[in-house]
Amino acid sequence: MTDYFAHSKNKVRKKHLLADHLTSVGNIVRCFSEGLAWQEEVVLAGLLHDAGKYGDLFQARLRGEAQGIDHWSLGAWLALEHKAVAAALAIQGHHIGLQNLSKDHLKSLNPKQLAINHPLQLRLSEGNLDVLKSRLTDDGLTPQINHTLLGNELKSTVSTMLDVRMIFSALTDADFLDTEAHFKDCVEGKRYRSSGPDLQREHALEILLEHIKELQAQTQAAPEVTDVRASLINNCLKAAESAAGLFTLTAPTGSGKTLAMLAFALKHAIERQLRRVVIVLPYLSIIEQTSAIYRGIFESHFGQNYVLEHHSLAGIGVEKTDSDSESKPGEQETAERQRRLLAENWDAPLIITTSVQMLESLFSNRPSACRKLHRLAQSVIFFDEVQTLPASLAVPTLAALSHLAYGYGSSVVFSTATQPAFEHLHETVKSHCTTGWQPQRIVSEPQTLFAKMKRTQVSWASPDKGTSWDELARHIKNQNYPQVLCIVNKKNHAKTLWENIGKDAFHLSTNLCPAHRRTVLDTVCNRLLNEEPVQLVATQCIEAGVDVDFPVVYRAYAPLEAIIQAAGRCNREGRRETLGKVYVFQPLIEGNENEFPDSSYGQAAQITKMLFRRHGADKMHIDDPDFIAAYYRELYDISKPEAMKKTKQLLEYVTAGSFPDIAKEYRLIKQDAINVLVPYQAHIEEFNKLNDEGNTIGLTSEWIRRARPFTVSIYRPKQDSPIWDSLIPVKVAGRKDREQNDWFIYIKKEDYHPVLGLIPSGSLNTWIG
Taking Cα atoms as reference points, which of 767, 469, 178, 94 lies closest to residue 759? Predict the structure, then answer.
């Protein structure tokens, strides 16, 4: 009997038997899909996903005798013979990405048509489908299915597309894991990576509540603040007894949401037997702080793998290749395998990630981005600072999250001090997901918490009279405030103001690598604690989740939620004898310069200015949830998320079932970004080591883990930008060339400023605002 192989020889010179690979993937996806409606279909996909490798041409390719072979389309067509449409799309997509949920596309998978005109100019691995079926049977594989996800219904909706992505996710993760195990093979056989630890819900909640109790005993916060924090914890623990579904958590800044939401998550996981907690945050600065807090609580009890961070801004990006079929036998396969194995699959009990990673993955069509999605089933998913969700993405996002909650036994929680008024979109969302958007409140009367937490007095300058940066700097100096924070909207504004205030001031923006930001924040917090003079100029990266407590805060006009977050850095603990002072000012913008980082941010800021002109300073009540809701109604009435051009375009792509177009259109960050290892002088030895290893060994998951504290993300420069002269790409481990284009090393050490961070010479437009 002839042996057929799935993969080439590993380090112990063993080839991967195809029947073993298909059976193993089928068994893995069966475990992944326990209790889910599409378990039968994903098992079918597992058994058929590489069926095309039984073809003689693919076996020749493994021997280096052929190239340009399509081995996935035949397995997809076999799945269609079982009427398993979702499985067919997943099988086709596990190499070239999910394509189209449409009859025309499914017809295009017909082997007879592909043999005549293949869209990628490839050859099918076998011309006779009966040969594949016979070889499957001879290897003891007889795929069967009684129930399919879509049946004869090919109507494409946000919900059905998410279901297809979930099947795709389980298949690709299982395929990656089994392939990885083969190439880690030892004499004894395949070596799978260790599974992530268990959530240990009851023990974790005990540890957390004990930690909260210790903090309450040690706090120096005002009694009103400690009362609010205790009340919030109690509200969260009580609401955690509810059935799984959609929730909102509205509470003022400084009320302890970071720990309260985790208390809800763990108690809710106990009540509903949920397996995982995912915390989704918009800014790297919040992730760094939140991760440090959670690791400090749990790492000594559960080990370092209990908390997983996944926060590379450039981690998903637009993939440049349509296929991973090899131009040279074996060469590109190695690169593709390495890229896949670097992708995170979220096999951890407590995950902290960015809005970009989470939401763009929910709408992606690529294997590496979607690989983690199946692990969101039976999870608690917290979106903190949810006001950062772009209005143009609101409708499809809410529809996907609603289906994730009600279709997969998960709970989705929107948490913020400035809760967007998404409920008015319920009917629109319902047309794309039958459950709509009707969340339950965790805190039934948030007004009570806000009233007790009044810690600041806000002074509003007119938005119609601008103040120059030089004038603002003189004003701050003349006031003789020993401790003051000034937050501006753009990095070049922060740089100019810092230069005008003087070299003794501190600066904080995402031009600084995480390690540098941590050093600045530690120094600033120590000065605040010891009542030493400190002046800090920052961008909005400081506004959410960063625990600093200044007596005086200046904030440039911005969206109302940003101003509220800025006020949350003022008299945060309520310990001062008088209310903290917050000054909202209008910067003088000259020439054609944009006042704001982007148009949607600017539109929201204009609503703030409009409310001031309408009501005057006395009625700008930033600590009133009703005023905040009115602001969002104004914003949505003007922007009309359901009628926005981008929203309409996305939903048209959904109706058409076009996975690639949706993935391209759904972007939280408009421009593609790259990761740049920077020469931060305080850790220059580690930079030098990483530089050497990047040039010799290449890109590995361990290298990325060590590099992240010293990495800055910038917009991908144009091809003719001079910054490329300062960037060296990190080669992919095991490759001779340097085709990977997401990770770079910055070689001009003089361009990393000791205060301002990375300042590429003459290339300020590459900064991320």
Answer: 767
- Residue 663: name the closest of 262, 359, 218 by CA: 359
Contact in structure between 42 and 29 (CB atoms under 8 Å): yes
Give percent above pLDDT 70 in the chain. 93
- The predicted pLDDT at position 76 comes to 97
Distances (CA, A) of 46 to 167, 178, 496, 530: 10, 11, 57, 61
What percentage of the chain has pLDDT greater than the value 90? 66
Q: What is the CA radius of gyration of the chain?
A: 27
Residue 126 pLDDT more than 90? Answer: yes
- pLDDT tier for residue 339 given thresholds of 50, 70 and 90: very low
Alpha carbon of residue 88 to chain centroid = 28
Q: Are strands 483-487 and 246-250 parallel, antiparallel or unpaired?
A: unpaired
Residue with tokens 């349509």: 322
User: Cα separation of 291 and 709, whole Å?
Assistant: 13
Quick: pLDDT tens for 53-84: 999 999 999 999 999 999 999 999 999 999 99
The phi-psi region of residue 121 (left if phi > 0; otherwise alpha if psi is between -120 and 50; otherwise beta) is left
Q: What is the pLDDT of residues 707-760, one digit of tens each?
A: 989 999 888 888 888 999 999 999 887 655 555 788 999 999 999 999 999 998
How many angstroms separate the Cα of 170 from the Cα of each of 144, 177, 368, 375, 615?
Answer: 18, 11, 12, 8, 53
Place of tokens 């190239």: 67
- SS3 state at 150: coil
The burial class, CB within 10 Å (0-12 / 13-18 / 19+), for 478 is: exposed
Give bridge partners of residue 492 from the DSSP assignment. Answer: none
pLDDT at 543 over 90: no
Q: CA 375, CA 59: separation in Å to the nearest integer?
A: 34
Q: State the average pLDDT for the chain.
A: 89
E strand or H helix that includes residue 742: none
Find where tokens 């499809």 sit.
396
Beta bridge partners of 281: 354
Tally the C-alpha atoms within 13 A of residue 736's C-alpha that lie toward its C-beta: 1
Cα gap 744→198, rounded to integer Å: 35
Report how far apart, in Å, the C-alpha atoms of 85 and of each of 109, 152, 163, 459 are.
11, 9, 11, 60
Structure tokens belonging to residue 706: 């060590």
User: 74 near 125, Cβ under 8 Å?
Assistant: yes
Task: Tell which residue, 171, 184, 168, has the closest CA to residue 16.
Answer: 184
303: left (phi over 0), alpha (psi -120 to 50) or beta: left
Check: CB of residue 756 under 8 Å from CB of residue 505: no
Residues 290-305 as b or e (16 or more Cβ within 10 Å = b): bbebbbebbeeebeee
580-585, strands of its sheet edge to edge: 456-460, 580-585, 552-556, 483-487, 534-538, 506-508
* Residue-wise pLDDT tens digits, 408-419: 999 999 998 888
Would you report the helix, strand and coil content of the chain in percent, each value rounded to 5?
50, 15, 35
pLDDT at residue 764 tops 70: no
Backbone angles phi, psi at 100, to 5 degrees: -130, 135
pTM metric for this prediction:
0.84
Contact of 663 with 365, CB cutoff 8 Å: yes
Q: Is 322 helix (H, G, I), strand (E, B) or coil?
A: coil
Mean pLDDT on 694-715 = 88
Q: Which of 599, 613, 612, 604 is nearest to 634 (CA)?
A: 604
Q: What span, in angstroms and rounded, lies between the C-alpha atoms of 6 and 481?
A: 69
Give the pairing type, strands 276-281 and 307-310: unpaired
